[in-house]
Amino acid sequence: MPDSGAPLSVTPSGVTSAPFVEFAGVAVTYGAGTPQAVAALSPTDLAFGRGEFICIVGPSGCGKTTLMQTLAGFLPPTTGMVSVGGQAVRGPGPERGVVFQQAALFPWKTVAANAGFGPAMRGLPRAVQRERVEYWLHSVGLWEFRDRYPYELSGGMQQRLAIARALANEPEILLMDEPFGALDALTREKMQEALHEVWRSRGMTVLFITHSVDEAVYLGTEIVVMSQRPGRILARIPAPFARQSADSEIRHVKASADFVALREQVLGLIWGENAV
Amino acid sequence: MRYLRARPQWLVTIAAIIVVVVTWAAATWGGLVSDLLLPTPDELWSGGLDLMLNGYKGYSLGGHIGLSLLRVGLGFGIGTILGTLLGLLMGVSPTIDALAAPFIEFLRPLPQLAYLVLLIVWFGIGETPKIVLLFLAALPVSAVAARDGVRNVSPARVLAAKSLGASRAQIFRHVVLPSALGEIFIGARLSIGIVYATLIAAEMIAGSSGIGWLILDAGRFLRSDYVVAGILLIAVMGIALDRLLILAQHRIVHWAGR
Q1: Are the beta carbons of A97 and B164 separated by less than 8 Å?
Q2: Is A104 part of the contact surface with chain B (CB cutoff 8 Å)?
Q3: Does A67 touch chain B (CB under 8 A)?
Q4: Sheet-wide strand order for A19-30
Q5: Cβ-proximal residues to A263 (8 Å cutoff; 6+ apart), any chain
Q6: Can you tell me the ipTM of this complex?
Q7: What pTM value is reported for the model?
Q8: Domain B39-252, what architecture?
């Protein structure tokens, strides 16, 4: 059953729509103007359309997180501009949901209150709040835990809650900074599958940072390879697997010859750069 | 090594208490220590009973306890509430921090007895200087705790709240305040300890009531049975107050340390 639940913004052919997110000459220097200035990100241009799943890979300290933080609005670029739908980014906003490497949940709130935090803060009608919490907690398999507290959940469950919290706000863009980095291999694959499913059915735009090339090749519609500090984009590689039929199992996809070939190509880029 | 432990810990605790009590009984009954210095167990028993039945110099024992607890409650309560509010403001606003910090930092390490005389000169010898003394003991500790609590809020949680659409006021109410609660409670426990220790000093101010005063006054008349009974009472009250705070802490800040 190919693409049965796919929304309009994801075109089955893989053709991208007009640029939705745009980094124009974005560079970040920490401590700019001081002797200790550190260039974290070289001037970077990157644009992608609605519904894309962009995976950024690269060595540690390559400016991946810095790049993402400019889009999240946590960090103003030293030069250049970030825009979403033609509007310049000036700070954090609920249309750009963020999932951190550490879940950053609110331990004093129940699972349900964590999931409903965004809708509650934005003052959405109570019925809508309840509906969203119920829907997303069901989606991430935490509905039975709705009255528990985050510290009663395992690491994987906490991360699922962080994702549900971001998604319950129904952001247009989901920013994820190594969200599965702290999880064990099995949980990680399950989460990849779950995220893939959500993305397919909701058609959000995702910017996803990972150290795992395997993860990037599986999830991304495009893989952006970055160099060491000060980071710049080495290559942009389209990946077909994210848009292939939903019912292929993750292990089968990852074992296919095409998958392995693409993974090797990306790894080659990363290793080749690091050898210089 | 806990796992090599042969017998339960409470046995050791009980044994230690028994050794002390037996030594005390042997030393006093055996005439090794004069009962002016330390009462015998039966003297302590009858002295304690006497205090309970007849009170001490104008107040029942319950009256002394009640007055002491009232002073501690008022001094600690007002000091901790105002101190916490001040500390929260200091944590949020660098300007208020710059304004208040020198006075708080001056007051905090100052022994309360150092300014006791001034308080008597200013407020006379009634209840006011006592409560002000305890208030001043509680204020700086809770202010510093609340300020540090606000400062130690996890930046990731604040960013998460911002990107979920929370306003500044909402971030304070739903993220900063609960996140500071743990340290506010730690401050409160520190502060009740200091307030309680200051109580004796407060009741030295020309008083004639309170458990601290009872101990001092009985000491003047060499009634070691009343003194030791008073000390035991004040210790039990102190432990109870601390336990009460721990209980409240576990109830309210149930997520702390997990």
Answers
A1: yes
A2: yes
A3: no
A4: A38-49, A19-30, A79-84, A87-88
A5: A213, A214, A217
A6: 0.83
A7: 0.82
A8: Orthogonal Bundle (1.10)
